[in-house]
Amino acid sequence: DTEVTQTPKHLVMGMTNKKSLKCEQHMGHRAMYWYKQKAKKPPELMFVYSYEKLSINESVPSRFSPECPNSSLLNLHLHALQPEDSALYLCASRNVVLNEQFFGPGTRLTVL
Amino acid sequence: EDKVVQSPLSLVVHEGDTVTLNCSYEVTNFRSLLWYKQEKKAPTFLFMLTSSGIEKKSGRLSSILDKKELFSILNITATQTGDSAIYLCAGNTGNQFYFGTGTSLTVIP
Q: Alpha-carbon distance A107 to A40, whole Å?
């Protein structure tokens, strides 16, 4: 099983809303990632959690707040977003031994 | 600065053609190189390469890594319209992945 799941698939929110993106994997992977992807661009790394600890934060604005409640779950809390934050948000997990990284299907976020 | 460069940026071929996609990398503490296929949704994993000269193969797709010259190629033989996608490569250093900008492949019937 190489499945990473993400909810919701689509999200439309206003600039004053608070929402959360959720990601789950049951492959026993101990590294989990959030990426942001704009159209016709490669994925852009936002955060990395390694063994449930935040190990990389790529200077992401504080309106994005990650959380890793346990080794299977990863959340991204959103607050006061801007229209330019509209993008595909991808979660990924990595087998830290084999180094294979698998992506979830993504959440298409639109900020109005 | 770590970087990954893919070429060509885009490619249009006819069904049945063979294509070669290129990926060169300059990644400090390099551990592996990964290839992904991205259609309209999320990237799907194709290959992970760590050793030079050992070809990985899956059906009509194959890939090889050259750690001396710092590049990898992805070959697709007997292309089909379903191969139309963006192909991404990424250099890995452990926790970090550095993505190229991708090659957009279009296969015409």
A: 16
CA atoms within 13 A on the CB side of A91: 29
Q: Do B31 and A42 touch (CB under 8 A)?
A: no
pLDDT at B30: 94
In chain B, which residues have their Cβ closer than 8 Å to the Cβ of A45?
96-97
Closest CA to B98 of A42, A55, A107, A4: A42
Task: Give the residue carrying structure tokens 């993505």.
Answer: B99
> What is the band of B94 on the pLDDT scale with cuts at 50, 70, 90?
confident
User: Quick one: which of A42, A31, A19, A40 has its CA closest to A91?
Assistant: A31
Helix (H, G, I), strand (E, B) or coil at B80: coil
CB neighbours of residue B76 within 10 Å: 22
Q: Give me B46's structure tokens.
A: 């194709």
Q: What is the pLDDT of residue A73?
A: 97
Look-up of token digits 């290959």 = B47
